[in-house]
Amino acid sequence: MHSKSNPVVWFEIYVQDMERAKSFYEAVLAIKLCEMPAPTAEMTMEMWSFPMDRETGMNTYGAGGMLVKMEGKSSGVGGTMVYFGCEDCAVEAARAVSHGGILIKEKTSIGEHGFIALVQDTEGNMIGFHSMVCKPSE
């Protein structure tokens, strides 16, 4: 059975320093993260969620997700790749660098699928930015 919707419904970005990571993502994506309680009292973790439409939840475009600080889960390049949608990926990539990130791949065409830019966040995680149209970067 094939679903017509995107099967990606959630992501977690593991971090070592929550304040540093939270500041980085809020500044780069121009958003406000929302603190989330741990799922159970036994789970000792700190979680901050990316904005999500609470009315329709996961039925809207884009996957929900959060930053997670939890014992036994380390951050770093090589495990998971998260792409954030944006108007011009070069803008977010530049913001990432100005907020402590490292540019890995500048805005690059991926043909009919648009453009991507890759950065390493302040926690060592590789993340991507994706945009569809070519806009001049400022």
UniProtKB/TrEMBL annotation:
<dbReference type="InterPro" id="IPR053863">
    <property type="entry name" value="Glyoxy/Ble-like_N"/>
</dbReference>
<dbReference type="InterPro" id="IPR029068">
    <property type="entry name" value="Glyas_Bleomycin-R_OHBP_Dase"/>
</dbReference>
<feature type="domain" description="VOC">
    <location>
        <begin position="7"/>
        <end position="132"/>
    </location>
</feature>
<protein>
    <recommendedName>
        <fullName>VOC domain-containing protein</fullName>
    </recommendedName>
</protein>
<dbReference type="Pfam" id="PF22677">
    <property type="entry name" value="Ble-like_N"/>
</dbReference>
<dbReference type="InterPro" id="IPR052164">
    <property type="entry name" value="Anthracycline_SecMetBiosynth"/>
</dbReference>
<dbReference type="InterPro" id="IPR037523">
    <property type="entry name" value="VOC_core"/>
</dbReference>
